[in-house]
Amino acid sequence: MSCSHGHATNSYPELNYSAGAKWIKNLTKDRLGTFNGGHYSDVNLSSVLFTHRVDNSENIKLKVWSAPGLTKPTFEEAMKQKFRSAKKTNHWWKVTVTIPGYWAQYERVQFEFDPGCEAMIYSTDGTPLQGITGGFGGDRRVEYIIPPEARAAGIHEFIIESSCNGMFGVPWNGDTIAPPDMNRFFSLASADLVVPNMDAWALLWDFQTLQELVDTLPGNTPLQNNALTTANEIMNVFHKGDPSAVRQGRKLAEEVFGEGWEAKGADIYNDGPKKSNIWGIGHCHIDTAWLWPYRVTQQKVARSWSTQVDLMERYPEHRFTCSSAQQYKWLEELYPALFDRVHEKVISGQFHPVGGAWVEHDGNMPSGEALVRQFLFGQRYFESRFGKRCETAWLPDSFGLTGALPQLIRGAGLTYFFTQKLSCNVFPHSTFNWVGIDGTQVLCHMTPVDTYTAQATVGDVNKGLTNHKNLESSDTALLVFGNGDGGGGPLAKMLENLRRIRATTNTHRELPPVNMGHSVDEFFEDLEKSTDEGKKLPNWHGELYLEFHRGTYTSHGSIKKGNRHSEILLRDLEHIATLASLYKFHNKDYIYPKAEIDESWEKVLLNQFHDVLPGSAIGMVYDDAEKLYAEVKQDGEALLEEAFGILFPGSVRLTPKTKLKSLGSSAKIVAYNTTPFTRWDVVKIPLYGASAGLKSQVLQASDDSKAGYAIMQSPAGSAGCLHTPSNALHAHLKPVSVYTNGSDHFVLRNGSVQLTISQGRISSLIDVKLDRELIPEGSTGGLVIFQDRPNYWDAWDVEIHHLETAEPLAFTNVSVVSQGPLHASVRAQVKYGQSTIDVTISLDATTATVKDNSRSLFNFDAIVDWHQRHEFLKFELPLNIHNDNATYETQFGYVQRPTHKNTTWDIAKFEVCGHKYADLSEFGYGVAILSESKYGFACQGNVMRISLLRAATAPDAEQDQGEHHFSWAVLPHVGHFLESDVPMAAYLFNSPLRVRCLPSGVSDIVSSLKSPFVVEGARNVFLETIKRGENDSFDAPADFETEGNKSTTTVVLRLYEAFGGHATAHLRIGNHVSVTKAFITNLLEDEEDELNIVRAEDNGGSTLKLTFRAFEVKTVKLVLGALPKTSTKKERRTSWVKVDQTQMFSF
Ligand SMILES: [Zn+2]
């Protein structure tokens, strides 16, 4: 019998007296924290990161010039200044470094500059080379690598501009209630020439990746244990005095990353699994203004992007994406040399413009047309500079997203949408089809990494799958990494980390693989393919409501007003200027002022940035924003005047100061109605010097007899004129009156509606015709104040608990200002705290619109001298109306939100965004609140509120302090909202009638013309915009009737369906606008389908048939030109407009 036990070759020892290798895992884990920095930094890895460091004046010469005050001079200006020798202070630096000859042996020499704030390094010819971020944050980047040629020369000169702001502008200690400290100082911490020990740095990055693996992965995975034992062993072999210990440590790390991983460089991404779940893309969120003003952002852009271009040279896999055409434009204007470098990288496919918009705008408050312009201006810029439009819309940080966006995104040639902000909500999807109010969808990805400033850690990569909400339908995620908000972008260490993570996943399966070298568009294209064109994905219908930051609909009233009023002014300007550029009765030199209009639009679009329009920036930003709005107003009104000078030659604007006498005895008052609705208005006319004829049209004199009231009737999109008493006081007019008991009881009334103020509160609102009381018994309406003390984020948040502190305010000093019969009003006052609120409540004899059965509206004009802090002023109206949903206008449509608190999702909507109206209706009746500059509304149960003023103190300590002028209106209506005239009334309430005086003896051709563009057959289709085509030439006056003229003249009209239903409309075009072709275009005005033009037999113009689905936005392009000769061919034209007496309109 043979037996093997006598021949054992096994080396497993027979005896064992040792303690064994069992560890206490947590202690080992905790030990890793002692390897870098901290208490042992003089002996651990930190102690060997630099081989040499000098900071003496022989090697480093610094000269400085400090810019005065808060100015940000350009490179050229700064270079003209006198620099003085300095050691350590602020601002512009001329640096000369002398590199010791024996340093030639080292891999790298760096200049380390830490000014404690942000800085930028320039070459001596002014090319920005890279940004510097001083201080001790995770975004610290203080090294500038000395170029090889300079090292060879032994001497290197460059320029540094240090800016007195940290990455977060005026430094803010992170307390979201306290205002930022405007007087913080920075000091220069280092300006050293150093030789980094690159092996030691590489070991540091190895070790950090291992540590992240240990911290991120579950403890029972082999990889996690392997990473921990490897990291522990690296610590064991490390010895400060032994250079080979670093190399040994690096070799050990290959246990996890794989042998020879580093030599593969960027090719590491070509190894391992074919499919990557996580797509890495470098990014840098630069808030266009926030805790810093626009002028600082311009520097941030240059700093951040130059850094990225520099990184691309060393990391070929690095791809970087940035949005906002405005930021590219600033770079182009202010840093042309750097723009050229960026341009090169865009063309080579490493630098990716994204978003297609002018800025990353607020997602709630810009009007529909303004959103169109965000994309139009953005896409046109990107196409003009880089030959390519964007495919992915990009709004990671906007505070809620309107359901109008999907349609506008697709209409602007984009298919995909990236956001992140909704991660603040409990939102059920990561990747989904986002379906807008009209049914248009975009492919939406909301990164499960839950941030657009990921640090590219193992945890970030892992979260891409572990936090994905719908892995059942899609298993890829976008990793958007790089420091942001204040700019910066990816750091070298992030790119190093990702290479190590990828190396690890090439041989391990515990982590999802990450790829690099792709674009965001490619990520979405892959998503589209892998989800069967989105069919496998869940859908989300309607708005992406953010359950935070609800105070931003109200914060900074002046900005909200500037936005709305600028949008309306530019709308009117484009409308009138378009007509002026086509109608040439007297002046053939008028050219549509395209460049000037664009310039104004750019200012409005810029201020719609997602921390400016919401009111969540520092005070300095609002000084700039208000200045921009003032310029838009001044320039816009001047251009409007010029255009009116063509339509109504010699005319002047009617103001209370207009001297009618100087205009002659037969001076005439006319108006232009730019809205698509026939309107009648009560207009106030100064009576001094007015002719007898004019006076005879006045139906009511003001109390001081200096002015009178008359009725102006204006057809849709056309000129209006005054109506004489004989035919004006027809059946539609409802004379108004005021009743009072003299002190605390006032009744404003006409034949349509009646409002009672009793003991300072609105105690009754009656539909006179139906004899229906709309305020529930025992309730009152009026102003109300709330304590507004959010838990966090002062200017951003209003919290639900503010509603528990309602304090109704009573009007005092109520007096009658105007008695009727055309216009009646009472003035009332509230004194509260240090503030005074004056409100004039008025009622006209006209109804809100010309719709049958329309009711009159009560107008509230407020002047508020506001000095409260952390209080919220609203106007409220309890209503005898019941519905589970209220309706709020949104861009190109409306959105309905619950009035109850069934679920947390419903409760969250205690304060919501609305545009020109909010409405509560039930079968048969409803009441709307109209707004001309406020965006915050609420309807809780049967109580409707409009939010008027807040007073946060951070980040702007003086938010909303001072005087405010604003208006709102209350409109009762017969029938449910869907049957009502609320959208039309709100439109009119927002659009001032442009009233003008024509001097005696001037022919009024325009008033004799029919409206050039009228929508017929569908009251739910609104004509929003009339403008000239983007691609027309504006070098010379439009000439579309000279045969053979090559220049194109087009008119672009934008229409939308406003009530949420299908429609077939006819767009009637007046015969004085000779249309040769008509197209449906996208929002970028690319022609899509040609429309059939139906021409009227009797030269009565032409008609286009347009069909709409609910909330559809349609853009129509009309090409103007000489029509084929018809019966009129013998007629010789003296002007481009023929006056046809049959077109004279009459009422
Ligand atoms: Zn932001």
Automatic annotation (TrEMBL):
Question: Which keywords are on file for this protein?
Answer: Glycosidase, Hydrolase, Metal-binding
Write down the chemical reaction(s) this protein catalyses. Hydrolysis of terminal, non-reducing alpha-D-mannose residues in alpha-D-mannosides
Q: Which residues form the Glycoside hydrolase family 38 central domain?
A: 547-629
The processes (GO biological process) annotated in the record are: mannose metabolic process; oligosaccharide catabolic process
Gene3D superfamilies in the record, alphabetically?
A: Glycoside hydrolase 38, N terminal domain, Glycoside hydrolase family 38, central domain, Golgi alpha-mannosidase II, domain 4
Q: Does the entry feature the keyword Cytoplasm, yes or no?
A: no
The protein's matches in InterPro entries, at most eight in alphabetical order, are given as:
Ams1-like_N (IPR054723), Gal_mutarotase_sf_dom (IPR011013), GH38_C (IPR041147), Glyco_hydro/deAcase_b/a-brl (IPR011330), Glyco_hydro_38_C (IPR011682), Glyco_hydro_38_cen (IPR015341), Glyco_hydro_38_cen_sf (IPR037094), Glyco_hydro_38_N (IPR000602)
- A cellular-component GO term for this protein: fungal-type vacuole membrane
SMART domains, per this entry? Alpha-mann_mid (SM00872)
Keyword Hydrolase present in the record's keywords: the answer is yes
**CDD domains (alphabetical):** GH38N_AMII_ScAms1_like
Q: Which domain of life is it from?
A: Eukaryota
- Molecular functions per Gene Ontology: alpha-mannosidase activity; carbohydrate binding; metal ion binding
Query: EC number(s) of the enzyme?
Result: 3.2.1.24
Q: Which PANTHER family match?
A: ALPHA-MANNOSIDASE 2C1 (PTHR46017)
Q: What is stated as this protein's family in its record?
A: Belongs to the glycosyl hydrolase 38 family.
Purpose of the protein: Degrades free oligosaccharides in the vacuole.
Protein name per its UniProtKB record: Alpha-mannosidase
To which species is this protein native? Answer: Crucibulum laeve
Q: What is the lineage of its organism?
A: Eukaryota, Fungi, Dikarya, Basidiomycota, Agaricomycotina
